[in-house]
């Protein structure tokens, strides 16, 4: 029996990166941030890795659980680094393993951006 308590994850008060695309034209800064996110997801391997982390139980995945995407381990590391640089993932080292988590506001912000305003 474990004495560990599971604490709920709280989303920080993070503003979405950009408004819905049909609300107003993006500023230059918003366009750069948004393009970096979508460019990172434009690679099929990166998209699979992002999806694997996002859909993993608890919203967090060890690199050992998601590296079976048909490329070598160094290539997986490269793609995960690109996803982190784009602000899509965060990581935490625990012993010899690295655990990845989708940045809390990313999926909601991307969804809002692509949804038409009502």
Q: What are the key terms here?
A:
alpha+beta; 44% helix; elongated; disordered N terminus; HTH_MetalResp_TranReg; Metalloregulator ArsR/SmtB family transcription factor; DNA-binding; HTH_ArsR_DNA-bd_dom; transcription regulation
The fold-level CATH name is: Arc Repressor Mutant, subunit A
What ranges have pLDDT less than 50 throughout 5 or more consecutive residues? 1-16
Arithmetic mean of pLDDT: 80
Give me the oligomer status: single chain
Could you give the distance between the termini? Answer: 50 Å
Structural class: alpha+beta
How many structural domains can be distinguished in the coordinates?
1
Going by CATH, the homologous superfamily would be Winged helix-like DNA-binding domain superfamily/Winged helix DNA-binding domain
Question: How does this model look, in words?
Answer:
With 118 residues, the protein is of the alpha+beta class. It has a single domain, classed as Arc Repressor Mutant, subunit A (Orthogonal Bundle), CATH 1.10.10.10. Helices cover 44% and strands 13% of the residues. The chain has five helices and three strands. A three-stranded antiparallel sheet has the order 1-3-2. Strand 2 (89-94) and strand 3 form a beta hairpin. Helix 2 (44-55) packs across helix 4. It is elongated and about 45 Å long. It starts with 27 loop residues before the first helix and ends with a helix. Mean pLDDT is 80; it is low at 1-16. InterPro entries: ArsR-like_HTH, HTH_ArsR_DNA-bd_dom, HTH_MetalResp_TranReg, WH-like_DNA-bd_sf, WH_DNA-bd_sf. Keywords: DNA-binding, Transcription, Transcription regulation.
């Amino acid at each position: 029996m474990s004495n560990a308590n599971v604490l709920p994850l709280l989303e920080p008060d993070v503003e979405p990166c950009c408004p819905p695309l049909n609300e107003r034209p993006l500023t230059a800064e918003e366009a750069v941030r948004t393009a970096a996110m979508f460019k990172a997801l434009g690679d099929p391997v990166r998209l699979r890795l992002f999806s694997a982390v996002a859909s993993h139980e608890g919203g967090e995945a060890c690199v050992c659980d998601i590296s079976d995407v048909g490329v070598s381990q160094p290539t997986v590391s490269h793609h995960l680094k690109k996803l982190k640089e784009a602000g899509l993932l965060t990581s935490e080292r625990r012993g010899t393993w690295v655990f990845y988590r989708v940045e809390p506001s990313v999926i909601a912000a991307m969804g809002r951006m692509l949804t038409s305003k009502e």
